[in-house]
Specification:
By secondary structure, the protein is α+β, with helices and mostly antiparallel strands. The chain contains 6 helices and 12 strands. The strands form 4 sheets. A 4-stranded antiparallel beta sheet has the order 7-8-10-9. Strands 1-2-6 form a 3-stranded antiparallel beta sheet, with no helix packed on it. The protein is extended, with a radius of gyration of 28 Å. 12% of the residues are buried.
Length: 282
């Protein structure tokens, strides 16, 4: 059992409310209150320490992963476009819900755009596509526990070679101006030519948290969180609608005055898709 003095010392060490006098409280009551308060403080400290350790480990892993990714290929520019040299790449994925009870051939055609039967069968025969580490036939049905591995030679689409301008940066946040034609995250034919990869390569920021998104063809402000506290703060602001996004469109000509709704009857067509440019064809 703790004495009164020892319990008082524990209280003053772990409680945010210093205990000046305890003459009106019995030793049993003081022991009960002190023990509960100490457990709460101890649990909070353990939780904070574990969270900090996880963030540190994640940051170290992100640096190692980025260095490995950079060694895959190299970047070059030509005619105002940023190109990625083709490189070998391995897709690894679990069978998705929409793939279940469908053949490997059908999934590869629809999901991975492999339209040639001859090319697909050659890849399967050569072991370039594996299910659970083994070769398979084109008509093999996928089940929930399947793991697919596909070895490919990846060719990324070029993007505009516009600089990424930093608008603001502090300890918890970095704000940049995203050029058009660049996606935020790796997707489809874009990986090294995505904004998150560019932030790693050009600014050595390996563990950023994307706070919001813009479409690939849209240019504008993008915020990345550098600390857990800032990410929580900004996401709460979006949720409470105290932070908003405004989109501006540049057009040729002038809109009619005093018109609330404007209907566009022209056909919108994509021109130079890789550059992020669009034109209107009447």
């Amino acid at each position: 059992m703790y004495g009164v003095r020892a319990l008082k010392d524990l209280w003053n060490k772990y409680s945010p409310r210093p205990l000046i006098a305890c003459s009106a409280m019995s030793a049993e009551e003081l022991a009960s209150v002190t023990s509960t308060d100490c457990r709460k403080r101890s649990n909070l400290e353990v939780h904070q320490q574990r969270a900090a350790k996880r963030r540190k480990t994640r940051a170290q892993t992100a640096v190692a992963t980025a260095q490995q990714e950079f060694s895959e290929t190299s970047i070059y520019t030509a005619n105002g476009l940023r190109h990625v040299r083709p490189y070998p790449y391995t897709y690894r994925t679990n069978a998705r819900e929409r793939w279940l009870d469908r053949s490997v051939e059908e999934v590869l055609r629809r999901e991975f755009r492999m339209h040639s039967n001859e090319h697909l069968r050659k890849r399967l025969a050569a072991g370039r596509v594996l299910i659970n580490g083994e070769k398979c036939t084109p008509d093999r049905k996928l089940i929930r526990s399947d793991k697919m591995v596909s070895h490919v030679h990846r060719h990324e689409a070029p993007v505009r070679d516009d600089p990424i301008r930093v608008i603001h940066e502090d300890e918890g946040l970095i704000v940049v101006n995203k050029p058009p034609s660049i996606p935020i995250h790796p997707s489809g034919v874009y990986r090294h030519n995505s904004l998150t990869f560019m932030m790693k390569r050009e600014f050595a920021l390996y563990d950023l948290k994307t706070l919001h998104r813009l479409d690939r063809l849209t240019s504008g402000v993008i915020m990345f969180g550098k600390s857990h506290e800032m990410v929580t703060k900004v996401m709460a602001a979006f949720k409470e609608h105290t932070m908003q996004k405004t989109y501006l469109a540049r057009v040729i000509g002038e809109f009619p005055v005093y018109v609330l709704f404007l209907v566009c009857s022209s056909v919108l067509w994509v021109f130079m898709y890789s550059r992020g440019s669009q034109i209107t064809i009447n």
